[in-house]
């Protein structure tokens, strides 16, 4: 294992054509299917970064801000933006693409934490994150800021919640 790995080395992009089996009765992608794709894409990014098997430790809050319709393409992108000793933080973005018009729109974003495993299935150290280009550093900084803002918004909603919606 190398001492460092770059954000660019972790970059992963997947595409999924939205077919009837992955849709609800409104012809829109099932949330569970989208979450599944996000988890896979994030895990691949973490594995590319660490050169290790990685398992999902956590997934932050998810808001579905736009549906992905039958016949559209889901584009799932992920990259490592932070690391701990054995943990790897990955930002995962999903956008919808209409293949007939080339129009795109953001549908959701979340932040995952994965843990790298050694050959015995135990947590193992991961490389330090290197961002040798300005673009990589900007992506890392933006992801850190967006995750902090997302977590702050969730905490504020919880602070404002009085339990009356139950």
Automatic annotation (TrEMBL):
Domain HotDog ACOT-type: start-end pairs: 8-120
EC number of the protein: 3.1.2.20
Pfam families: 4HBT
Xref: SUPFAM superfamilies: Thioesterase/thiol ester dehydrase-isomerase
Protein keywords: Hydrolase
One Gene Ontology term of the molecular function aspect: fatty acyl-CoA hydrolase activity
Domain of life (superkingdom): Archaea
PANTHER family linked to this entry: ACYL COENZYME A THIOESTER HYDROLASE (PTHR11049), CYTOSOLIC ACYL COENZYME A THIOESTER HYDROLASE (PTHR11049:SF24)
Protein name: Acyl-CoA thioesterase
Organism for this UniProt entry: Salinirubrum litoreum
């Amino acid at each position: 294992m190398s001492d460092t790995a770059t954000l660019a080395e972790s970059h992963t992009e997947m595409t999924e054509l939205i077919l009837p089996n992955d849709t609800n009765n409104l012809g829109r992608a099932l949330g569970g299917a989208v979450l599944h794709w996000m988890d896979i894409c994030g895990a691949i990014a973490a594995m590319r970064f660490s050169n290790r098997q990685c398992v999902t430790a956590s997934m932050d809050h998810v808001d579905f801000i736009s549906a992905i319709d039958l016949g559209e393409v889901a584009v799932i992108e992920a990259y490592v933006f932070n690391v701990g000793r054995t943990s790897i933080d990955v930002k995962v973005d999903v956008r919808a693409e209409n293949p007939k018009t080339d129009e795109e729109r953001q549908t959701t974003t979340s932040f995952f934490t994965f843990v790298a495993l050694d050959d015995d299935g135990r947590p193992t150290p991961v490389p330090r994150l290197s961002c040798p280009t300005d673009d990589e550093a900007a992506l890392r900084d933006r992801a850190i800021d967006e995750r902090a803002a997302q977590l702050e918004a969730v905490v504020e909603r919880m602070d404002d919640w009085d339990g009356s919606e139950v």
